[in-house]
Amino acid sequence: MIAIADKTEILIEALPYIQQYEQKTFVIKYGGAAMVDEELKETFAQDVTLLKKIGVRMVIVHGGGKDITDLAVKLGLPTRFVQGQRYTDEAMMEVVQMVLGGKTNQDIVARINQHDGGAVGLNGVDNGMFLVRKHTEGGADLGLVGDIVRVNTTFLELLFTHDVMPVIAPIGVDTEGRVHNINADIAAGCLAAALQAEKLVYLSDVPGVMVNNELLHSLDRSRAAALVDAGTVTSGMVPKIRSAFGALDAGVNKVHIIDGRVKHSMLLEIFTKEGVGTEVVH
Ligand SMILES: Nc1ncnc2c1ncn2[C@@H]1O[C@H](COP(=O)(O)OP(=O)(O)OP(=O)(O)O)[C@@H](O)[C@H]1O
Ligand SMILES: [Mg+2]
């Protein structure tokens, strides 16, 4: 048990942060184990609600690759991979819409609202939030996968003035009205940039960026480039790092990659001097 004096000290340590972050915007990329484990889902919902209640403008962008794969398997849809990445054909895009923009999104919203978090589920199609162009980088044709070319934050601003927390599925639409799947890390980075967020936090299933089994507390651009070149940073960590630097360039103040498997890691990152995970720095 924590003694009363220690409890009050912990609460008071949070005060300057509460003052600093009131009315600021935090974009949280929600993914990995924190979206699967029952207890972690619950603590996540508590954390984002607490932050919103102290006056932070909270925005959640979620992944859901596992849910998509699960339903595709149930429906007997084959998953095609091109250079290790999922190919999104029209049938798969329907699953993406049903799952990401449907059940996955609503499950997160329902859980947050159990705690009175005032969450509303959206996706990038709503009010043309994410305008996309077919993804072409790297040469591989991934089908209906989009790169964000413009973010429209008008509707989100409206929600903030009504104290609503948007929970956003990474789906966008092109100029022809075709819906596309978007990498959730990249969507979170673009949204943080467009909102000029104070913080962008990636919740993942690792302690942060690891090198030789050790956590990097801070990572700058040249080190990141070297780690990617050397093959030390690969797969799902690459879009996080790329979009992290993109967000910093666009004026986002701080970017953190933290361990979503640790209960309340988000609160530790935000309310303590020490912080956790990897901070991506200029
Ligand atoms: N140097 C590295 N340090 C840490 N993780 C790394 C590194 N290189 C590659 N990775 C991989 O990146 C993964 C994190 O990205 P991943 O896309 O799998 O999860 P996520 O984005 O949190 O979840 P989701 O994609 O389901 O939303 C880690 O599980 C790890 O396998
Ligand atoms: Mg990922």
Please render the helix and strand layout as text.
Elements: H1 4-21, E1 25-30, H2 38-53, E2 57-62, H3 65-74, E3 80-82, E4 85-87, H4 90-114, E5 119-123, E6 130-134, E7 146-151, H5 154-161, E8 165-169, E9 171-173, E10 179-181, H6 184-194, E11 199-204, E12 210-211, E13 214-215, E14 218-219, H7 221-229, H8 237-249, E15 254-259, H9 265-271, E16 278-280
The structure holds adenosine-5'-triphosphate (ATP) and magnesium ion.
What is the string of SSEs from the N terminus onward? HEHEHEEHEEEHEEEHEEEEHHEHE
What's the helical proportion of residues? 40-55%
- As a percent range, the share of strand residues is 15-25%
**Total helix count?**
9
Strand order of the largest sheet: 5-8-2-1-11-15-16-14
The poorly predicted ranges are none
CATH class: Alpha Beta
- Total number of distinct structural domains: 1
- Hetero groups: adenosine-5'-triphosphate, magnesium ion
Which descriptor suits the 3D outline?
globular
- Overall mean pLDDT stands at 95
Distance between the termini: 40 Å
Q: Say which CATH homologous superfamily is assigned.
A: Acetylglutamate kinase-like
| Biggest sheet overview | 8 strands, mixed
Oligomer class: single chain
- What CATH calls the topology is Carbamate kinase
Structural class: alpha/beta
Overall radius of gyration: 18 Å
Name given to the CATH architecture: 3-Layer(aba) Sandwich
Please describe what this structure looks like.
The chain is α/β, with parallel strands linked by helices. Helix content is 41%, strand content 23%. It has nine helices and 16 strands. The chain has helices at residues 4-21, 38-53, 65-74, 90-114, 154-161, 184-194, 221-229, 237-249, 265-271, and strands at residues 25-30, 57-62, 80-82, 85-87, 119-123, 130-134, 146-151, 165-169, 171-173, 179-181, 199-204, 210-211, 214-215, 218-219, 254-259, 278-280. The strands form five sheets. It has an eight-stranded mixed beta sheet, with helices on both faces. Strands 3-4 form a two-stranded antiparallel sheet. A hairpin with a 2-residue loop joins strand 3 and strand 4. Helix 2 packs across helix 4 and helix 3 (65-74) crosses helix 4. The mean pLDDT is 95. The protein binds adenosine-5'-triphosphate (ATP) and magnesium ion (MG). Adenosine-5'-triphosphate binds at residues 31-32, 63, 65, 184-185, 204-206, 209-210, 232-237.
